[in-house]
């Protein structure tokens, strides 16, 4: 009977010792389990980036134009040249005689006409026409790119304490006052 009592007490002692070791780390079952640690500090991890936005910007702009200048002869009138041909023909007829008189008259007429036309071209005071300036409003456009700064929380840098030790981790959510941790207990040989 004493043996049975000693054996029962020894078994209860081993069970109590194993339960005490298991509960000192929290609510886990078997060699590994889950528990909660105290959160000491939480810092958001912020990502900053530039977002481009393109917009068309248009305006009306005055543009100056100049017509090309063209040279014009001052006299386009052929009356003086015809008069020169008549005078040249009269003079030519004075120098000719017989059958040569007609040739001298024709030569004088041609020379008189050409002399007056050349004179008109050379000294007739040709002028430049056109070359005036004018303003026309034209639409001009360009693409402007503006950059807007934006911030986004991409995670949280968490400092927590478990069993008197301080640890760090990164989470994608704000953990609040406590953080669920996995506890793994293994014997060391």
TrEMBL record:
Chloroplast is among the record's keywords: no
Compartment list: Membrane
Signal peptide: 1-22
Keywords tagged on the record: Membrane, Signal
Principal localisation: membrane
Domain Glycine zipper 2TM: start-end pairs: 80-113
Protein name (record): Glycine zipper 2TM domain-containing protein
């Amino acid at each position: 009977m004493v043996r049975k009592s000693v054996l029962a007490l020894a078994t209860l002692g081993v069970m109590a010792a194993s339960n005490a070791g298991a509960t000192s780390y929290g609510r886990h079952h078997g060699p590994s389990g889950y528990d909660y640690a105290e959160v000491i500090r939480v810092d958001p991890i912020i990502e900053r980036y530039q977002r481009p936005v393109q917009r068309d910007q248009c305006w009306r702009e005055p543009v100056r134009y100049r017509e090309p200048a063209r040279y014009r002869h001052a006299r386009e009138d052929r009356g003086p040249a015809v008069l020169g041909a008549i005078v040249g023909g009269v003079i030519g007829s004075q120098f000719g005689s017989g059958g040569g008189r007609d040739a001298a008259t024709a030569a004088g007429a041609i020379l008189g006409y050409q002399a007056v036309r050349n004179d008109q071209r050379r000294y007739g005071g040709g002028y430049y026409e056109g070359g005036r300036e004018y303003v026309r409003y034209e639409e001009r456009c360009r693409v402007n790119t503006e950059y807007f700064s934006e911030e986004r929380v991409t995670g949280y840098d968490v400092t927590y304490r478990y069993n008197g030790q301080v640890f760090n981790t990164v989470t994608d959510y704000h953990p609040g006052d406590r953080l669920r941790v996995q506890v793994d207990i293994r014997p060391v040989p």
